[in-house]
Amino acid sequence: MNRLQDRVAVVTGAGSGIGLATVRRLSSEGAKVVVVDVDAEAGRAAADEVNGLFIQADVTDEAAVRRMYEQTQETFGRIDIAFNNAGISPPEDDSILTTGLDAWRRVQEVNLTSVFLCCKYVLPYMQRQGSGSIINTASFVAVMGAATSQISYTASKGGVLAMTRELGVQFAREGIRVNALCPGPVNTPLLRELFAKDPERAARRLVHIPSGRFAEPEEIAAAVAFLASDDSSFITASDFLVDGGIAGAYVTPE
Ligand SMILES: NC(=O)c1ccc[n+]([C@@H]2O[C@H](COP(=O)([O-])OP(=O)(O)OC[C@H]3O[C@@H](n4cnc5c(N)ncnc54)[C@H](O)[C@@H]3O)[C@@H](O)[C@H]2O)c1
Q: Is 94:152 a contact under the CB 8 Å cutoff?
């Protein structure tokens, strides 16, 4: 499939997990990919793999975000796809009863403020083109509650979802689509780190997934490629669930 031939895509958090799988998928569909990550080693390796451009940036840094789009525009002359995907899920972010303000703020910065900044600075390029697809990574936890809380993470993803919906509505008539991707639990380092420390917590979650397993990053990347392409031309402001049925389930174990 060459659905993204010559489109230019900027992917944040592109050195690992969902971002890395998406870099590979977008490139395989013909896109030129700009790989953004705070981790230089992982980011450079991902960019090398697809002959893309690596930009080291911390997406919580306003000037760095502005510069990464400037550099993309200078290099490729356009920006068609922004996959705002960088996010963290640190163990200090837990129940509201034990989570401190520092952990709360850090997660809000990386997961929510970064998406605000990325959208703010990519939109003017897309407005000038009269086209663009923005995909912001939220999570299934933005649409349902869990007793195994990561309170700031959940709140940040709810914020991503609401902000995305509003942007999708605001810019729809300018040819710009903005969608929130809501993955279920995905087999990535972020999830493995969280559950490696607590296998019982992992087992408790698996019970609730009708598909009976975590997603592979490639399955999420396939959804991103769809949302990035013209195949999704009438989809905007959506909560795009790719969750193995979790959000539709009441009790799943037999
Ligand atoms: N893994 C899951 O189960 C799951 C489920 C739903 C949503 N998500 C979301 O998907 C996104 C990607 O998650 P993943 O599982 O692939 O994570 P990951 O940890 O495998 O990869 C995240 C990448 O983001 C980079 N990053 C972190 N902070 C950054 C910053 N400030 N600036 C730039 N880059 C930064 C990291 O270096 C890393 O390469 C996150 O937003 C996460 O919340 C993950």
A: no
Pairwise CA distance, residues 115 & 187, whole Å: 23
For the whole model, what pTM was predicted? 0.96
Which residue ranges make up each domain of the chain? Answer: 8-186+216-239
Which residue is closest in CA terms to ligand 1's atom 20? Answer: 17
Residues in the chain: 254
**Per CATH, domain 8-186+216-239 is 3.40.50.720:** yes
- The 10s digit of each residue's pLDDT in 77-105 is 999 999 999 999 999 999 999 999 999 99
In this structure, the residue with its CA closest to atom 5 of ligand 1 is 185
Pocket test for ligand 1, best of 12, 24, 38 (most atoms within 8 A of CB): 38
Q: Could you identify the residue written with the tokens 């193995």?
A: 244
Q: Which residues contact 253 (CB under 8 A, 6 or more apart)?
A: 207
- The continuous run of DSSP H or E covering 108 comes out as helix 101-108
For residue 125, indicate whether it is catalytic: no
